[in-house]
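Input structure tokens:
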């Protein structure tokens, strides 16, 4: 029986693909590198994001990763007020809360940014915990997943991780959570399907499980 839902934020609850892509493309243009199409982005996006940056064409012999990572966050913050939740987020979160599920956010975004964004989106009250990482470098969130499992005394078999990247499936695997992958985020459905877990095209599909 599932009693706890562990949500990813970017690309799962928050529809920020356009902003992420335009910020990345702006950095690529500044360096005279070819920009990414949506399709190419969804085919190469991964964690740690430094590996995705490398695949996108950044040269970390020429500059440290921290430089574009910082510039990316500046562009992201400048545009984040334009991002929206996916259309069925509020309906899904409120129905799951009514049914008595505990809901948590586990993100590779920096913790205070994450909490602010969720607060500004007006959905903080649906969650029993919101957990982000310590810096802006989006390396991984497996260690944070293990930490909250311990701190909140989660019974991992009763948890399901919902995310939009291969890393969400890796987190679920490492922590022993069940996993469902959402196909409208930052990674192509075709890549998500390689993980062999259930995929959904709409979040409200969760309500009929
Ligand atoms: Mg995500």
């Amino acid at each position: 029986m599932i009693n706890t839902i562990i949500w990813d934020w970017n690309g799962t609850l928050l529809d920020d693909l356009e902003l992420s892509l335009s910020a990345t493309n702006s950095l690529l243009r500044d360096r005279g590198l070819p920009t990414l199409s949506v399709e190419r982005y969804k085919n190469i996006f991964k964690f740690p994001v430094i590996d995705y940056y490398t695949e996108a064409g950044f040269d970390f012999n020429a500059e440290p990763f921290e430089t574009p990572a910082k510039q990316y966050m500046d562009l992201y913050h400048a545009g984040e007020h334009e991002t929206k939740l996916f259309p069925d987020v509020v309906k899904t979160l409120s129905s799951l809360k009514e049914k008595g599920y505990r809901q948590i956010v586990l993100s590779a975004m920096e913790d205070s940014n994450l909490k602010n964004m969720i607060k500004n989106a007006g959905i903080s009250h649906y969650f029993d915990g919101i957990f982000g990482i310590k810096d802006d470098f989006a390396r991984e969130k497996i260690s944070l997943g293990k930490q909250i499992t311990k701190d909140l005394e989660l019974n991992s078999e009763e948890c399901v991780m919902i995310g939009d990247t291969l890393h969400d499936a890796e987190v679920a695997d490492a922590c022993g959570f069940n996993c469902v992958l959402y196909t409208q985020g930052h990674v192509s459905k075709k890549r998500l399907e390689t993980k062999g877990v259930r995929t959904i095209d709409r979040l409200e599909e969760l309500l009929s499980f």
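The first strand starts at residue 4 and ends at 7. The chain has two domains: 4-15+84-208, 17-82.
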